[in-house]
């Protein structure tokens, strides 16, 4: 164990020893000096809410160094990462379960819900790809419309809970709308709803806000599960690493659905996550860049008479109702990948916030 700890220190400190010569573009937080990992990529990808700046310099160096240890299983290294995550979220190691992205955690919670039979509740519209197997798993999905300003209707969701409800899903900030629940209202909702069912809060985008996580509440609430990810702010979407935060008894129940708990994440990805947690400078700069480019994009969309929903994330939800051209053909003609129409009423779509240059190209493409 001590050897593994020493190895980790060498990986993290080794990135400092590099002098960041390979990552000098990150020394200055101005957007034009950031070079994405895939500088020659084509098309411009504005579809999946990925971090356009790539992993942090420390994470990149850690990934490179950890390749030599990929012949060994990462049990001990996973324990180190769990301890770091627990400390960051003010919980104990027993409150953390690692997953191959938050997608694996979402799948596990769905399976956990299916074991209890009944139904589960989520918003319409929200992140729902993970719900597709629910019918085959024998559980019923109940959807509750968003409010007029595209927020979770917490009172309506609370009212929809019945004796068969086993889980309620809240994506906060919400994907694809970018809206966020009022913290105090959400805390009250969790307290009440968790009396009858598990409340599953997806905080994939919480790092793009100044909002407080609900993670500390799991200590006293065994029916609350939080999921977080390194895919978005940390730029590790392709590395596939996320985690659940819950009461230790709940973590045990979720772990029992896996053949090897905490072993689905590679050594390389684990090293990247650990290094990224230590790179506060990178996180602060990405946050600032996202805010700057988001403001520019919303301003430009507004000038085009397109209604935008205030965003607490790294994407923007806006209406194409007043757009006279074929939006998706305009994107295709300019080699840009967007998403789809999420709500026919109002023609609402979503665009990921890329670099300033990418968003300038996006605006030019749809003018």
Describe this structure in words.
- The chain has 367 residues and is an alpha/beta fold.
- The chain has helices at 2-17, 57-66, 75-88, 101-115, 154-160, 183-193, 248-255, 267-277, 280-303, 327-333, 356-366, and strands spanning 44-45, 96-99, 119-124, 140-145, 165-171, 198-202, 224-229, 242-246, 308-309, 315-319, 336-337, 341-343, 348-352.
- The strands form three sheets. It has a seven-stranded mixed β-sheet, with helices on both faces.
- Helix 2 (57-66) runs antiparallel to helix 8, helix 3 (75-88) runs parallel beside helix 8 and helix 9 (280-303) packs parallel to helix 11.
- The longest helix is centred in the C-terminal third of the chain and has 24 residues, at 280-303.
- The protein is globular.
- It starts with a helix and ends with a helix.
- Helix and strand content put the structural class at alpha/beta
For the largest sheet, list the strands in their spatial order. Answer: 2-8-7-6-5-3-4
Distance between the termini: 58 Å
Arithmetic mean pLDDT: 91
Largest sheet: 7 strands, mixed
User: What is the helix/strand order?
Assistant: HEHHEHEEHEHEEEHHHEEHEEEH
Task: Give unreliable regions as ranges.
Answer: 15-32
Q: How many DSSP H or I helices?
A: 11
Rg over CA atoms, rounded to whole Å, is: 21 Å
What form results from the Cα inertia axes? globular
* Strand fraction: 15-25%
- Helix share, percent: 25-40%
Strand runs, count: 13
């Amino acid at each position: 164990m001590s050897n593994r700890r020493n190895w980790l220190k060498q990986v993290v400190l080794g990135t400092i020893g590099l002098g960041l010569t390979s990552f000098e573009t990150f020394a200055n937080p101005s957007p034009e000096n950031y070079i994405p990992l895939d500088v020659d990529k084509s098309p411009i990808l504005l579809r999946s809410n990925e971090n356009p700046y790539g992993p942090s310099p420390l994470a990149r160096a850690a990934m490179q160094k950890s390749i030599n240890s990929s012949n060994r299983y990462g049990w001990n290294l996973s324990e180190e990462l769990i301890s770091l995550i627990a400390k960051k979220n003010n919980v104990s190691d027993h409150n953390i379960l690692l997953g191959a992205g938050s997608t694996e955690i979402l799948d596990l919670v769905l399976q956990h819900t299916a074991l209890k039979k009944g139904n589960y509740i989520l918003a319409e519209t929200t992140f729902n790809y993970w719900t597709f197997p629910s019918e085959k798993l024998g559980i019923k999905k109940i959807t509750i419309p968003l409010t007029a300003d595209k927020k979770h209707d917490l009172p309506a969701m609370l009212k929809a809970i019945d004796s068969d409800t086993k889980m309620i899903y809240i994506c906060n900030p919400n994907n694809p709308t970018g809206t966020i629940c009022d913290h105090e209202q959400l805390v009250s909702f969790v307290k009440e709803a968790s009396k009858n069912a598990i409340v599953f809060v997806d905080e994939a985008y919480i790092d793009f806000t100044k909002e407080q996580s609900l993670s500390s509440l799991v200590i006293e609430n065994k029916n609350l599960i939080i999921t977080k990810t390194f895919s978005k702010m940390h730029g590790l979407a392709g590395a596939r690493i996320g985690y659940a935060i819950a009461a230790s008894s709940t973590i045990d129940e979720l772990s029992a659905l896996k053949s090897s708990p905490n072993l689905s994440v590679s050594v390389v990805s684990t090293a990247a996550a650990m290094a990224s947690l230590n790179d506060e400078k990178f996180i602060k700069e990405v946050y600032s860049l996202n805010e700057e480019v988001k403001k520019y994009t919303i301003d430009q969309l507004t000038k085009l008479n397109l209604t935008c929903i205030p965003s607490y994330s790294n994407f923007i939800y806006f209406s194409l109702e007043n757009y006279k051209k074929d939006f998706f053909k305009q994107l295709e003609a300019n080699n840009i990948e967007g998403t789809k129409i999420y709500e026919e009423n109002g023609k609402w779509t979503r665009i990921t916030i890329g670099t300033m240059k990418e968003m300038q190209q996006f605006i030019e493409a749809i003018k």
